[in-house]
């Protein structure tokens, strides 16, 4: 979550927490001490308790399975604490209308909506944007069907004047391509397992997309660096991908044979928008790198 939203006890203050941030089931988090953490709450009672008495180290609440429960949100509209909420919508294609329950909550505290890029997600994304709720869109390894919807989503984000709040991962990728951001998708989407530790019910740590911990060789150093190095050693298409630095093998996890052709088109669309924005800011002297490359190619001498 945007670190300007993290909670410091009873107050919401701009700060940079110590890393990593530990994600725990609500009952396990009750006795936690010794570092920043995020409780995962799934009941009215849990939500109310954390809002009333937020302890030191609490960053935000990850709220799951409560969007359909209208009465569960009443404490979030009345509590005097400023604890931010990350509301996970598991089935955005069918739960999009439930987002209206967050309007009164958003009036008194920071709220973000997180959703998987599953079929029909665009309806929920558009409702969230209309309500001015920030969105974290978790693409995973999108199917061809979802890639069509992602293409429509990125064009909506880039071109529709009603979009006034950030939609991740589009927002940070665009900023990076405009020269004002950094970090890979793993960090942008808060899925870097070295910084965002998700503890499973059995006590071990989980990584997105797999039910069991990865092989020890992937954990010998930092996970993202090791995974990306592994892909390059295997001559994956990351080798020649122009967006390898911002992706860092994100779309190759957990199945390295995933075809990134559709994903590259998404990046290309965002890059085109970044060039247009830069041209508008800099003026007519701006040189589009792609256009310059084409000119060089057309002026090249023919081979003997």
Molecular structure report:
The chain has 304 residues and is an alpha/beta fold. The chain is 37% helix and 13% strand. The protein has a domain at 3-188. The protein is built from 13 helices and eleven strands. The strands form two sheets. It has a nine-stranded mixed beta sheet. It has a two-stranded antiparallel ribbon with strand order 1-2. Helix 3 (74-78) links the parallel strand 5 (61-63) and strand 6. The protein is globular, with a radius of gyration of 21 Å. The protein starts with 6 loop residues before the first strand and ends in a 5-residue tail after the last helix.
Q: Which descriptor suits the 3D outline? A: globular
- Radius of gyration, in Å, reads 21 Å
What is the N-to-C succession of helices and strands?
A: EEEHEHEHEHHEHEHEHHEEHHHH
Output mean pLDDT: 86
- Tell me the quaternary state: single chain
Biggest sheet strand order reads 9-8-7-6-5-4-3-10-11
Cα end-to-end separation: 57 Å
Helical residues, percent:
25-40%
Strand content: 5-15%
**Count of β-strands:** 11
Structural class: alpha/beta
> Mind describing the biggest β-sheet?
9 strands, mixed
Tally of DSSP helical segments: 13
Q: List segments where confidence is low: pLDDT < 50 over at least 5 consecutive residues.
A: 7-15, 290-304
């Amino acid at each position: 979550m945007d670190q300007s939203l993290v909670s410091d006890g009873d107050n919401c203050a701009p700060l940079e927490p110590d890393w990593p941030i530990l994600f725990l089931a609500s009952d396990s988090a009750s006795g936690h001490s010794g570092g920043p953490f995020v409780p995962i709450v799934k009941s009215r009672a849990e939500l109310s308790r954390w809002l009333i008495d937020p302890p030191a180290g609490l960053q935000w609440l990850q709220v799951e399975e409560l969007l359909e429960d209208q009465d569960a949100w009443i404490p979030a509209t009345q509590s005097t604490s400023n604890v931010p909420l990350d509301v996970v919508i598991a089935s955005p294609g069918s739960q999009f209308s439930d987002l209206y329950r967050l309007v009164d909550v958003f009036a008194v505290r920071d709220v973000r909506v997180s959703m998987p890029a599953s079929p029909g997600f665009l309806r929920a994304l558009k409702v969230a944007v209309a309500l001015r709720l920030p969105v974290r869109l978790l693409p995973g390894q999108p199917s061809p069907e979802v890639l069509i919807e992602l293409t429509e989503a990125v064009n909506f984000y880039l071109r529709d004047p009603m979009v006034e709040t950030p939609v991740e991962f589009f927002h940070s990728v665009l900023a990076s391509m405009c020269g004002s951001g950094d970090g890979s998708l793993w960090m942008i989407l808060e899925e870097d397992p070295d910084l965002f530790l998700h503890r499973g019910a059995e006590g071990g740590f989980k990584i997105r997309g797999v039910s069991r911990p990865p092989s020890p060789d992937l954990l010998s150093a930092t996970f993202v660096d090791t995974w990306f190095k592994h892909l390059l050693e295997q001559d994956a298409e990351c080798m020649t991908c122009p967006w390898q630095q911002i992706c860092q093998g994100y779309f190759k996890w957990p199945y390295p044979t995933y075809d990134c052709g559709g994903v590259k088109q998404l990046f290309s669309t965002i890059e085109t928008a970044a060039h247009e924005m830069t041209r508008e800011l800099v003026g007519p002297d701006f040189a589009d790198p792609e256009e310059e490359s084409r000119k060089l190619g057309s002026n090249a001498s023919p081979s003997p």
